[in-house]
Amino acid sequence: MRDLIQKLETEERISEEEAYKLYDLDLFTLAKYAHKKRTKLHGKKVYFNINRHINPTNICADTCKFCAFSAHRKNPNPYLMSHEEIMQIVDETVGRGTKEVHIVSAHNKDTSWQWYLEIFKMIKAKYPNLHIKAMTAAEIDFLHRRFGMSYEEVMEKMLEYGVDSMPGGGAEIFDEEIRAKICKGKVSSENWLKIHKLWHSKGKQSNATMLFGHIEERKHRIDHLLRLRKLQDETGGFNALIPLVWQKDNSFLDIKEQLDSEEILKTIAIARLVLDNVKNIKAYWATMGLNLAMVAQEFGANDLDGTIEKESIQSAGGAKSARGTKLETFIELIKTSNLIPVERDSLYNEIRIYE
User: What is the pLDDT of residue 77?
Assistant: First the structure.
């Protein structure tokens, strides 16, 4: 453990073996070194963007046990939006100043690939400067399996139709034994990484996620982070890691309690320390709440995500995020924490600093 502390002091890369020992450190030791790293990278800045989440369907061919969003007997309200309905949402949100639309769907086998992809062309034709973040690796894998399209073919359509960056959804936890229990049939960890590597090879960027707080163990989280670090060494294409705190309501996993705040903060801090090659760590307020997300800014995180406006996936599992949050709320919370609010674009270019 002395060697690990020495490496944290000197900011040397933590080895794979040492990474598995990080959870043995107390919370405040982890916070000290994670905050040091965060401050070196970002100073007192806390980033956010003005964005809108759109989820065009919740009808899903997969049956992930952790998921409360897809239509099933615990959520018997299936829906499928038309392109016209999606465009109406886009029109309204652009009118309110939104700079990014984040579009993620369930895996609906009764639609065409054109339904999934051509909406991006419609949006870009009308709003060429609006950033489209869309198509998780899980969706790309679904279109590959459903329509016989190669990953390359799906991505070429994404690029042709105007997708600017990829979200990190579908990663869950990379350990295949865990995946077999919580999301069997969904994109494999190997293919999730392969898809992001291919996207990065096209000069495009993406986010990464890690879903934790369900049946995984600490070792599975470390393994997940190490695999992301390895790919980032190869491509440099990840903008940010988003550790997603799993929401327990309305799922098919028999777990009574959510993770406590200490375990969440430890995981944020460890993510900051292990991912020395990923610049940004989000404390995604939609899964941990705004107050804890602000605390996490002292534990290695430097981003809150965005205003969102409407959030359907996490709120279906019990998160208090259905109506998004206001820009003024972000600014006030950050300033009262003696930090600096910074509005960014989707690729972390600074738009406005609220001094």
Answer: 78
- For residue 87, the SS3 value is helix
DSSP sequence for 156-200: HHHHHHT--BB--TT-S---HHHHHHHSTTSPPHHHHHHHHHHHH
105-121 burial by CB neighbour count: b if 16+ within 10 A, else e?
bbbbeeeebebbbebbb
Structure tokens at 66: 């952790």
Separation of first and last alpha carbons in the chain? 41
Decide if pLDDT at 104 tops 70: yes
Q: Which residues are annotated as a binding site for [4Fe-4S] cluster?
A: 60, 64, 67
Instruction: Classify the C-alpha dihedral 215-281-225-134 as positive or negative.
Output: positive
Q: What pLDDT is attached to residue 72?
A: 62
Give me the amino acid identity at 114: Q
- Taking each helix axis from N to C end, the angle separating 27-42 and 261-274, rounded to the nearest 10 degrees, works out to 50
Binding residues, by number, are 60, 64, 67
The per-residue pLDDT for range 228-285, each reduced to its tens digit, is 999 999 999 999 999 999 876 656 666 767 789 999 999 999 999 999 999 999 999 8
